[in-house]
Amino acid sequence: MNKYEMMFIVKTVSDEATVKATIDNLKSVITSMKGEITEEKDMGQKKLAYPIKKEITGFYYVINFNANNEIVAELDRKAKIDENVIRHMIINLDEE
Length: 96
What we know:
Distance between the termini: 16 Å
Strand order of the largest sheet: 2-3-1-4
């Protein structure tokens, strides 16, 4: 298993329950496929550098986790199809 970091931005127009459900959904992908979450950071609401899909602010979250390639591929797929996730990025920390 490799170490990864995922940063994602959730729409601010969503209510709190939707934001929490989006975060829990992405975390459950990791844990249900036998990955391990090592650290979570809620970075709060921030102004975006430029508008994305007509959004000017977003909730930033960072998750550090240990996983294999299958988990990362599924996590990437889920983040792409989730309409509440504006942007996401997954970085392999072992390749630094």
